[in-house]
Amino acid sequence: MKAHTMKKNHLFALTLISVSVLAGCSTMPQSTTLDNARTDYNNAQANPQVVKLAPLQLKEAGEALERANAAQASREDAKVVDSLAYVAQQKIALTQETAQRKSAELAVSNATAERNKLQLQARTAEADQAHQQAAMAELTAEQKTAEANLARQQAADAQAGAAQDQASLAAMQAQMDELNAKKTPRGMVITLGDVLFDTNRAQLKSGGERNVQKLAEFLKRYPQRTVLIEGFTDSVGSDSSNQVLSEQRAQAVSMALTNMGVGRDRISTKGYGEAYAVAGNDTASGRQLNRRVEIMLSDERGVIAPR
Amino acid sequence: MMKKTSRFQLPQLSRSGVAYAVLAGGVMLMAGCAGTPPTEQIAVTKAAVAHASNAGTTQFAPVELQSAKDKLARAEQAMEKEDYALASQLADEALADARLAEAKSESAQAQKAAKDSQDASRVLREEINRKAQ
Q: Which residues of A touch B118 (CB under 8 A)?
């Protein structure tokens, strides 16, 4: 009986030890560290970047959290639970860092790709610009060639024109020479001598008509020119009769020109009698020179300088 | 349900049997708290902390690195005191700290590289736009 009691006491003591040991390993079911770890884990799980870029790390963090949860559930020492929760927290933080690192690495490769693209675009643009400039230069060269050709053409034309002008001028000069035209300060003057008229007559002789024919042809050829026909006499006879005679002679030439097809509007006549003698009236030859008709040729604009 | 059943069955066992069972359970629990020396775990942690001790972590994760070093030191002290459970626990934390320190440093450096790269792109873009004008 006593031995039994002893044994019973012994058993009780052992049981107490065991219980106390058990209690030592399982108190304080609450852990703020674990609560925080759970919150952190939920946040990490809700972060698509973490889920996408750090799935392995997230899985390991979940397992660490599970160990902490299990330790708390089996009422292990708070320090053990806290420690496991701490490890879980660090692993959850690791998922965020890993996700950020991978995201940054993606950004680096994206930026590098963008730079390569930009450089390629820039090079392409430069090449295009060079092409464009070359094309432009070609165009400019073509334009310059065209301009040079045009200039050459114009120069040639001018030369040809000048030659033509010179030729026509020469032709006109030749015709004027044929008409015995003389250059005076008033312009070109053609003098028809008295051989064309009989004394005291205003009728053109046939030889005179030939000369007038030449003049008519000249005037038809140069339609911008007009003529002023001036009649003169020697001093034989009265002034009034000489005046009339000079006018009649001028009109006779005018008539002849009109008959040959020169417009009346291009012809004007004037008589000066015995005025403006070109030689002395004391000799027969001088008087012959004074009996005359002078034909003033206008310039190209039809203007005749007044006497 | 099983636990309850076994507890109800306890009185049916011999008293000495119960005593031994409880004793054995106590010893086992004590052993569970103390454990065997976590030599391998300490070695792994030591290597991890050594690996994490670099210029990058010193700059970008000094707190985590220091924590890893401190906990490793404390784990080694616990080993000397044959408090293997504490040693294991501290080694676990030190390992997690060291890994986090490295991840933080790598992340910070990658983010810096990303910023530099993006800046370079921006500069290039501006340069090209300036040329184009």
A: 107, 111
Minimal C-alpha gap between B80 and chain A (Å) = 20
Domain ranges of chain A: 26-149, 170-297
What DSSP line would sit under B72-109, residue for residue?
Answer: HHHHHHHHHTT-HHHHHHHHHHHHHHHHHHHHHHHHHH
Q: Which are the contacts of A51, defined by CB distance < 8 A and separation ≥ 6?
A: A45, A58
- Measured between alpha carbons, how far is B127 from A51 in angstroms, rounded to an integer? 38
Query: What ipTM was reported for this prediction?
Result: 0.72
Residues of B in contact with A94 (CB under 8 A): 96, 99-100, 103
Summarised one tens digit per residue, pLDDT across range B63-105 is 999 999 999 999 999 999 999 999 999 999 999 999 999 999 9
The pLDDT of residue B1 is 42
Q: How far apart are the first and last CA of chain B?
A: 84
CATH of domain A170-297: 3.30.1330.60
> Contact A98/B128, CB-based, under 8 Å?
no
Instruction: Identify the DSSP state of A154.
Output: H
Smallest CA–CA distance, residue B102 to chain A, in Å, is 9
Q: What is the pLDDT of residues A100-112, one digit of tens each?
A: 999 999 999 999 9
